[in-house]
Design brief:
- This protein is globular.
- It is about 75% helix and about 0% strand.
- The protein starts with a helix and ends with a helix.
- It has one domain: Sodium/glucose cotransporter (Up-down Bundle).
- By secondary structure, the chain is mostly helical.
- The longest helix is centred in the middle third of the chain and has 35 residues.
Length: about 425
């Protein structure tokens, strides 16, 4: 594991230093098809331990929530949003709000983007994996994850992310293919799962409330406002590469969802729920894999997580850096953003206990606040909001108050937030 961490750090550090600002954050908009696919796929899977945990407790409904919903969102992105992003001259999501809504709405959108692009959830997962292997305190594990995932961003920028993502793309698939083949050879296939899984784990009928499921279908729409996806769509070299890249990436998502969810089902079939102390994936690999292969699988998990930590840290830093007004260079301001993002992510890590709570909370607020106006801007370049600040601020306030009131009647904060956003955007 230590060798792996050092190699990834060196690969990132040895990337060619960015020649200018555009090269630093967009690789000069020359992203090729293999590079686009590698970074698009790896960045999307940072929450791997949560996939295992959710599958262990709920079964294949996981594929609906964390798979199918996102495939549809990606297809919407491909058809309606990505071409607009790629052809426009706007580099980031807050740029749109600064131009069409004004300074204060632009700053509000930046704050929301910083929250949804925080690497905190993935640092929590990295710490969980690291603590599983080494007897290291939680905070120190977070700091180790930050150092080995972020240090090379200071000078290499987006190019260093691309270089490391290519290696991590191979490792993430190799690890899960390896453990799944081992499980199949030692325990059997579908017949074993049918006989050993808890009742309902292989059924799409679930006790999960319909409203909760529908909320996740809306949260999946964060694909349309994810700053990491925005960056990659903007950085790709041409529209043909963009179209091919998204379609092929969806195909790779489907393959990896099959690998990861099936592995989670094996964990539920093999490990008694009452004896599970760690992540199902970590417990399963300890149980069924010999030491060397167990290490390879853990490195695969680290690859998935670290490929997301660096990407989210970088996009959050870009957002912060572009809001800093001084006489320094834009690259320097982004480097300051790296430091501030790291500090903020540590605070978030220490403030939450469950990764899925961060996704659900920040994702709901972001979708309610900026999804509708961003789509409206993209499809109406001449749009000028009549009540720009209120149009952004009201959905944010409504969503936040709804959370503070304990989500009355069990209704998720996203619904009143999006309703407020639709009303304000209609009036504007």
């Amino acid at each position: 594991m230590v060798i792996y961490l050092v190699i990834i750090l060196l690969i990132g550090l040895l990337s060619k230093k960015a020649s200018n600002y555009d090269d630093y954050i967009f690789a000069s908009r020359k992203l090729t098809l293999p590079a686009f696919i590698a970074t698009f796929v790896t960045t999307w899977y940072g929450g791997i331990l949560e996939i295992g945990r959710f599958t262990f407790h709920n079964g294949i409904i996981t594929w609906i929530i964390f798979g199918l919903f996102y495939y549809f969102s990606a297809l919407i992105l491909l058809k309606y949003i990505a071409p607009k992003i790629h052809s426009n001259s706007m580099e980031t999501i807050p740029d749109y709000f600064h131009k069409y809504f004004g300074y204060i709405p632009g700053v509000i959108s930046s704050l929301i983007v910083i929250l949804i692009s925080s690497p905190a959830p993935y640092l929590m997962i990295f710490a969980t994996i690291f603590m599983h292997v080494y007897d290291i305190p939680y905070l120190y594990s977070i700091l180790i994850g930050l150092f080995f995932s972020v240090a090379y961003l200071l000078f290499g920028g987006f190019k260093s992310i691309i270089r490391t993502d290519k290696i991590q793309f191979i490792l993430m698939y190799a690890g899960f293919i390896m453990i799944l083949l081992n499980l199949y050879n030692n325990f059997g296939g579908l017949d074993f799962l049918i006989s050993k899984l808890p009742i309902g784990h292989l059924s799409f009928k679930t006790s999960i409330p319909v409203g909760y499921l529908f909320s996740w279908s809306l949260i999946s729409m964060i694909t349309l406002i994810d700053p990491n996806i925005f960056q990659r769509v903007y950085a790709v070299k041409n529209k043909k590469t963009l179209d091919q890249g998204i379609i092929i990436s969806i195909f790779f998502w489907m393959i990896f969802d099959f690998l990861s969810i099936t592995t989670g089902l094996y964990a539920a079939a093999i490990i008694p729920p009452e004896s599970l102390l760690a992540s199902p994936y970590l417990a399963l690999s300890n149980l069924v894999l010999p030491p060397f292969l167990n290490t390879i699988f853990i490195i695969s998990l680290l690859s998935i997580v670290m490929s997301t930590i660096d990407s989210f840290t970088f996009t959050s830093s870009i957002t912060i850096g572009r809001e800093i007004k001084n006489n320094k260079s834009k690259i320097f301001n982004i480097q300051i953003g790296l430091v501030l993002t790291s500090i903020l992510s540590i605070i978030i890590c220490l403030s939450f206990k469950q990764v899925i709570d961060i996704w659900y909370l920040f994702g709901s607020i972001a979708a309610a606040t900026i999804l509708v106006p961003l789509i409206k801007i993209l499809y109406n370049p001449n749009y000028k909001a009549s009540y720009p600040t209120t149009t952004i601020l009201l959905p944010l306030i409504v969503s936040t108050l709804w959370i503070l009131c304990g989500s009355p009647m069990g209704v998720d904060c996203m619904y009143p937030g999006i309703l407020a956003s639709l009303v304000m955007n209609y009036l504007s």
